[in-house]
Amino acid sequence: MKILLLGGTSFLGKHIAQSALSKGHEVTLFNRGKTNPHLFPEAEKLIGDRESGDLRALEKGEWDVVIDTSGYTPGKVEKTAFLLKERVSRYIFISSISVYKSFLSGEAREEDETGSLDNPDTEEVNGETYGPLKALCEERLEKILPGKVLTIRPGLIVGPDDTTDRFTYWVKRFSEGGEVLVPGSKERVIQWIDVRDLSQWIILMAEDRETGAYNVTGPKQGYSMKEFVEDLTLIAPSGTEAAWVEDAFLVERDITPFTQLPLWIPVNEQYPDGFILADYSRSLNKGLVLRHPRETIEDTLAWFKAYRSDELKAGLAKEMEASLLQSRAIVDQPRNDIQK
Questions:
Q1: Dihedral sign for Cα atoms in the order 177, 231, 192, 221
Q2: Coil, strand, or helix at residue 75?
Q3: In the CATH scheme, what is the homologous superfamily, with its name and number, of domain 2-159+192-216?
Q4: Does the pTM exceed 0.90?
Q5: pLDDT digits (tens, 9 = 90+) for 34-73
Q6: Contact at 8 Å (CB) between 193 and 219?
């Protein structure tokens, strides 16, 4: 199978390329050639820049499928799709579960209504526009390539090579030991998908010529923050202690959800579950295989120790965490020490 990968050298794109090449597929990478240009010498490499509109390298060539990991605004996605529509059989678009308009009814399903923007022509990608812009990209792709689009809506993507540090923060923090501030209820359900499981499944779906929309997340049904902490303590030094802090305490102190405290959204009218949750049973029925959460944790820590020495982009600074813990309000009293 001939695969055109838009991106391909950072995090998800990198793992998709690895999965495709490991199965003997012919891979062409289209990107700026600036991030990890040494990777995948066996792949054809086309240089261009979607942000500046330089798609000249894509004006020739035919592929069985294009996998778009770098499409964020409908105008740029539309331009790419028009250019390729006569020369690709299928288009796989990496979207997000953030496309859904509401999470008030529990886990979002693929048929649920997606979000919209007052100004659909905006090119500014931020926390408010990200999901609706992805939804617009989905709509325009289906109009240009009707019946040929596979839309992948992942949850939080985690694991080795993560560029966001949202999952890595928890792995690093527990590996350091001490008293660790953990937000919200112990029973709060969280979701994430290992980048390797997602990548392998995307290639499987490409091989099977699938189309339609699929939520893709994990790591297992009903996985709680308590279970996550228990799995994290296996990489923690003896004496590591989880200090559970209620939402109200953190909200009152203007702690930023998902940035200062990754994997946390305070329970409120917009997010009654305290998280963005999606039903991913459709993907499981199509062969999605999820590894044990502990494997993801251990491999992320090994990657971090081997390749990272810079400051994390997400998570509480140690000084802030210490200050919060001094005046914390613990959900369960007395505190339940969690030790290795």
A1: negative
A2: helix
A3: NAD(P)-binding Rossmann-like Domain (3.40.50.720)
A4: yes
A5: 999 999 999 999 999 999 999 999 999 999 999 999 999 9
A6: yes
